[in-house]
Write a structure and sequence with these properties.
This is Tat pathway signal protein. The chain is mainly beta and 156 residues long. The chain has a single domain, classed as Immunoglobulin-like, CATH 2.60.40. The chain is built from 2 helices and 8 strands, in the order H-E-E-E-H-E-E-E-E-E. It has a 5-stranded mixed beta sheet with strand order 4-3-2-6-7. The longest helix is centred in the first third of the chain and has 12 residues, at 2-13.
Length: 156
């Protein structure tokens, strides 16, 4: 399943202790009823200084639209190799996307943040629409998006 590819892709972006443990984390994103085409969405991680560390998941497989995910595109130079093997279908208006990934324990309570960028054809984009610290205290808490995302949460 893609969760293993995502873990491998992200692990290669981090220098982790040899004995690092991983745990399944479920990311739940509910889109607002914005009434347009399906959205492109990318989840990625930055460190405490805001530097890009790796991509976790991309919804939408046509690379020509990746540049519309502006913060992610700027951080990666639009490099589609950052999401090879971790893409899924676009997510539609009013729908919920649940993605479960195995993430290293070293990402939690260590200053890392999860970012979600979204873009909808003919409706614009929302760079860093959701930014959530990867802290244990945030597990299970809902966060509102700024434009296309109604709510987001992660559970460990």
């Amino acid at each position: 399943m893609n969760k293993y590819l995502a873990s491998a892709a992200l692990a290669s972006a981090f220098v982790l202790p040899v004995a690092a443990q991983a745990k399944p984390v479920t990311f739940s994103t509910t889109m607002s009823n914005y009434g347009g085409p399906e959205a492109y969405m990318v989840m990625y991680v930055t460190d405490a200084s805001g530097a890009y560390q790796g991509s976790l998941w991309m919804s939408g497989g046509r690379s020509k639209y990746y540049r519309d995910l502006r913060d992610w595109s700027r951080a990666t130079g639009g490099n589609s190799a950052e999401v090879d093997g971790i893409t899924g279908a676009s997510v539609g208006s009013g729908r919920t996307l649940n993605v479960t990934l195995d993430l290293s324990d070293a990402l939690f309570d260590a200053g890392y943040e999860l970012h979600i960028d979204t873009a909808v054809e003919h409706m614009g984009s929302a760079p860093s629409e959701v930014v959530v610290p990867l802290d244990s205290d945030n597990s299970g808490k809902m966060t509102s998006g700024r434009r296309f995302i109604q709510s987001f949460s992660f559970d460990m």
